Amino acid sequence: MSRPIRKNQLYHLVAAHSREVSRQPAVLFWGIIFPILIALGLGVAFTRKTETVRNVAVIEQVTNGPGISAIDRFLEERTTRTSSGETDPRAYRLTLNNEKLGDTTFVFTRTDWPTAMIQLKRGRVAVVMDAEEDGTVVYHFDPMNPDAQLTYLKLSRLAGGEAPPGTTGQDVAPLTLAGTRYIDFLIPGLISMGIMMSCMWGLGYGMIDKRAKKLLRRMVATPMKKSYFLIAQMSVRIGMNFVESGLLFLAALLIFDISIQGSIPALLLVFLAGNIAFGGLAILTASHTANTEVGNGLINAVVMPMTVLSGIFFSYQNFPDWSIPIIQVFPLTLLADGLRSVFIEGAGIADIAIPATAMLGMGVVFFAAGLKVFKWH
Amino acid sequence: MHPVIEVRDVYKSFKTVDAVRGVDLAIHPGQFVALLGPNGAGKTTLVEMIEGIQHPDRGDIFVMGKPWKGNEDELHRAIGLSLQETRFIDKLTVKETLRLFASFYDLDGDRVSEILATVGLAEKQDAYTVNLSGGQRQRLALGIALLNRPRILLLDEPTTGLDPNARREIWSILLDLKARGKTSLLLTTHYMEEAEQLCDYIMILDHGKVLQEGTLDQLLEAKTGEKIIEFALEESGSSIHRFASDSPFPIHWDPRNGRASIAIAHIESELPKFLRFLESHRAQLKTMECRRKTLDDLFTVLTGRRLSE
Q1: Contact B53 A217 (CB under 8 A)
Q2: Full-prediction pTM beyond 0.90?
C-alpha cells in the first residue's frame, strides 16, 4: 500500500533539508561553487607551462685577484642586465625559448652569502652559485629538491658553454593525446576529493553542529524513523555533490578539453557508490560527539591521511611497496582510481564492478554502525 | 481509573549533582499537574525521564501503564511535549516546520491548518522560524506538541522568559485544552501564578525531592484562612534579630528587600497582639501590608528561600 506522498516522512525530511540548504546562498556558494573554483585553480596551477622563472643567487667575490671569475664571465657574456629601476639593478636575465616545453628564464641576483641563505630558506632561490679560489663554479642546493636539481642540471650545462637539455626541443614529443596529460589524471582526483570533503564536512560536521545546537532532540521525541532522517540528510548531500561534480566536469571540459573515454553508466555507478561510502563514513564519524572542536579533529583524522595518501595529486605508486595494498582499499583511493579508470582508461561496468561493490558495502556497513551508535541528544 | 503517568521512587544523578532523589508521582486522566520549583530543583531531569529522553538510575516510570523500553513508538504517539529550549531549523517557515512534524505522525496539511489556528500563528505561517519572537516560538513549540492530539502533554517551562502578555496567550491555549478534558498535563514552572492558574494539583520540588504536594487550597491551608503581614521597620532591618525570638509568631526576614513577614490566621485578634509586641520592643513601623498567602510564601517557609532565587 502506498501512502500519499504528502504524509510521507522521508519526502518531508528531504524537502525540509533541501529547503534549509537552498535558502542559504552562502551554503550553496561554499558547498558547491567554492570547491569548483579551488579545483580549477589547482588544475590551472599544475598545468600551466608558459614561462618558468628560475631564480639563482650569485655570491659576489670579495677577492681582488687578477682576471675575472668564470661566473662573472658567464654573466657578462651570456646574460642581459635588466634595466635598472624595475628590478634589482644587479639582476641578470637569460631566457631559453622552447615551444614545446615552455620558456625558461633564469634570473641571477648578485648578493652575499648570508642573504643568499635567507633567500634559499624562504624558497626565493633554489640554487646558489659560488666560485672557488681557483675560479671554478660551485652550486649549492638541496639534492632532495627535484626543482633545484633541474635548475642545477640546466645551469651547469649553460655555464659550461653547452646547450642545456631540451633547449632545442627537437628530441621532445609532448603527450597531448587526451587522457595522457597530467590534467586528465588530476580532474577525476579532484572530483573524488570534492565528494569526500563535501560528505565529511557538509554532512558529518553539519550533523555534529545540529546535535550541538540541540536540533535533533525534539525530532527524536516523535515517532520519526531515525534511519529516514539520516537517509534524507545523505540524499540531499549526494544531490549537491552531483551538481558540484557535474559543474566541475563541465568547466574542465571547456577549459582543459578533458573527455570521458569509458561508459557513462559505469561513471554514474562509481560516483554513486563513492558518495554512499563517504556518506556512511561521515555518519559514523559524526555519530557521537556534540563538541564541534572534537568533530573538527575527528573529521581531519579521517580526511587528512586520505588526501595525502590516496593519490589525488600524485600517484601513490611512489609510496613504499608494502603500503600500496593498504592505500588501495581507502575509500578515496577506490573512488579516485574508479573514476580515473572510466575517465581515462575507458573502463565499463564490468571493470568497475569490484571497486563499486566495495564502496557500496563500506557505505552500508558504516551507515548501519553509525545509526546503531548515533547519539541524538 | 489508572494513572496515565506513574513515577515510582525515581533517582537520577549526574557527575556533580544528584538531580532527582526519590520522587513518586501519579497523573490521572484529564488532570493538570504542575512541578513547581526554583532553577536546579530537578524539574527538567524528572520531566525528561518521563519523556523517555533520559533514563532513571533507579525506580520505575510508566506512561499509559507501559515502560519506555520496547514501547517507544507507541508512547511517542500518545504524548506531546515541549522541551525547555526548543530549537527549530532556522530557514524553515512555521508551516513547513509543522508539516515536517506532522509527517512523523502520518498527519496531513489539514491538521497543520487546525494547529496554526489553535496557537494563533496563522498570520505567521510563512515566516522563517528564526524570525519569530520568544512568545511565537513557544506557541510553535506548543503547536508541535499538540499536533498528534496527545492524551498526555508534557511542557517544560513553557513560558519562561516571556512577557506577561505572551504568557497569558499560552495559558489561554492550555485552559481551552483543559476545558475539553481529553488531555492530561504535566508542566514545570518556577512561576507560582502559572501553577495556580492552570493546574489542579501542584508538587513543590527542591533539590530533587518533593517538599509538599496537593491542590492549591490544600497547600495554602485555605480553610485556616492564613494571611501574610509584611512589614518594614524604621531602624535598620537586621535589628529584628534582636527581638525576633520573643515574637508570638515566627518572623521571616528577607534580607534582599529589607522586609519581614509573619503568617496569621485571625487578623482581628492576632494583629493587635503583634503590634503590641512591636511597641514593647520600641520598634517603629515604616510600612505594613496585609495580603493573601501564596505558594512563594509556602516555599519560603519550607526552604528559607524564594522561588525566584
Answers
A1: yes
A2: no
